[in-house]
Every structure is written in C-alpha cells, then in structure tokens.
Amino acid sequence: MHLTYLDCRNYQGSGLAVPPLELRDALRAGRSATGLWAAIPSDFAVELMTVPGIDYVCVDQQHGVVDYAAMVGMFRAVEARGSTPLTRVPVNEPSVIGRALDAGAHGVVVPLVSTQEEALAAVSACRYPPSGIRSFGPIRSTLTLGSRDTAVLGDGMLCFVMVETREGLENLDAIASTPGLDGIYIGPADLALGLGLTPSLDREEPEHVDAIQRILKACQANDIVPGIQCSSGRAARRRLAEGFRLVTFGKDSALLRDAARAELHAARGGSESDIESEGYS
To answer: Nearest-CA neighbor of 213 among 231, 248, 181, 188?
Structure first.
C-alpha cells in the first residue's frame, strides 16, 4: 500500500498543508513510498514535477546544483503540493544535517557511509540530546511541523544512509543494525563505481545484483526501510515488487533531458522505441 496524495487544504485547521510526519509514520508502519529526485534549483520545476500521488521529493545537495536558499524554496513547493520534502546532504557532517532539518526537511539521505560509526554519526546529527548531538534552532521546521517538541523535531526525522563502497558492504550488517537508523538508500551508480564497474543505475553484473539484494535483505532482517534510486517507473515497479519501500523513479534533470531528446527525435522522424533513457545523471 502506498501513501495517498493529499491536496493543499490546511490539515485539520493547523495551518499545515500535510499531516506532520506522514511519510515517516507510513514507512514505520511498513508501507511503501514512491518519489522523485530534484537537482534543478527551481521551486517552479518542483511544482510542475510534484504531480498527485508523489509521496516525497528529495532535494539533492550532493550532486545537484542547489544552494541553501534554493533548497528552502524547493521545500516550500513540495509542501504546497501536498508532498514530503527530503534532502540528500552533501556530506556526513552534523552542522550540514542539522541545518537541512532546521529548514524543513522531514529527513536526510547521507552519502558514503561505510561503517557503523559513520551511520551512528548520521543518526546522532538528526537527534537532539540525549539521543544525539543536534543543536536546537529549528528556525523553519517549527512552522512546517507545527511543534517545538524535540521528540517531534528530532526523533521524528527520517535518517537514511547510503552504502556504496566495498567497505560499506563488508560492514553491512553492522550498519543495518545501527540504533535509530530508519533505512539504507541505494544509489546503484555509485555502488557500481565502488565495485569497480561503470556507474549506471541498471547494471546486470552478478556482483552488482548480489550487492543490491544483500542490502535489501539486511534492511528486512533489521526491520529498517530499504530504498533505491531507479532509472524509470518500470524499474521502480520491479524494485517495489522485490520489497524496496522508498523508491525514487526519476530525477528532474534526467526527465527533462530525456523528454527533450525524445521530442527532437520524433520531430526528425524517429521512432519513440529508438530512444533510451540515460538514467540518473
């Protein structure tokens, strides 16, 4: 069962566009969610992309061209469309993670986590004392979440880490059992790179396929959410059937580029079947 789209009416008169922590509650209840990745620094692009049924939009600070001010505007657009804003932070650093959560992200995706110590650091950066080390200053999240309670603003935030190196795979069981961790999110291209393969979202080498399945099973064994980046809606459907529960089916920059290529190809007399998506980048 997926989340259901909510329109932009105020939620129960609270002034909030969506129920607080809806995505977190759904995932922790065992449900799945599908969403999009946003790398273009434009709130209007986010508004266009967040069609009814999109459960979340993750603003990419690692590989997107998004600065802090643009990120806040993009969060506003996600919220106004009745969806949930997440962000991939550029680095596993407490001030960066805390600042993104203060700005209104409902959760973070932390890249390049290869040990349990690094996973613990990511979780700790999301939580207030005594559960973590996050500094209190929720300048915008108090408005969007309608609370100043540290249990809501801290413990309520989703924390995903990315396992994308050989070292991370060697420490997979320890990472997956990290207290307070909500899930592991797979970036198949970086995982391929970490395995010595050409980066791509759809590698078919046995080592890559096995690594993805190992991460999925480790998440399931530890009752945390398995997430993954996909190159298309069809690929996302397959991953959902496998058991992944936070599934990204597209990225704004890739969707825009692929649509332009397809229409140009059609204008010049080509067949739609001749066009293949270039995927994530």
So the answer is: 188
CB-count burial class (<10 Å; 0-12, 13-18, 19+) for 275: middle
pTM score: 0.90
What is the tens place of the pLDDT at every residue in 7-48? 333 333 444 444 568 999 999 899 999 999 999 999 999 999
Return the residue matching tokens 């067949």: 271
Q: What is the mean pLDDT of the chain?
A: 90
Percent of the chain with pLDDT over 70: 89
Question: What gap in Å lies between CA 115 and CA 266, rounded to an integer?
Answer: 48
Active-site positions read: 63
- Could you give all domains of the chain from N- to C-terminal order, each with its CATH number? 22-274 (3.20.20.60)
| CA–CA distance, 57 with 230 (Å, rounded to integer) | 14
Label residues 48-73 b or e (16+ Cβ within 10 Å = b): ebbeeebbbbbbbbbbbebeeebbbb
As given in the structure block, the two tokens for residue 47 are 């508004």
DSSP letter, residue 32 = B
Residue of 169, 172, 160, 189 lying closest to 88 (CA atoms):
160
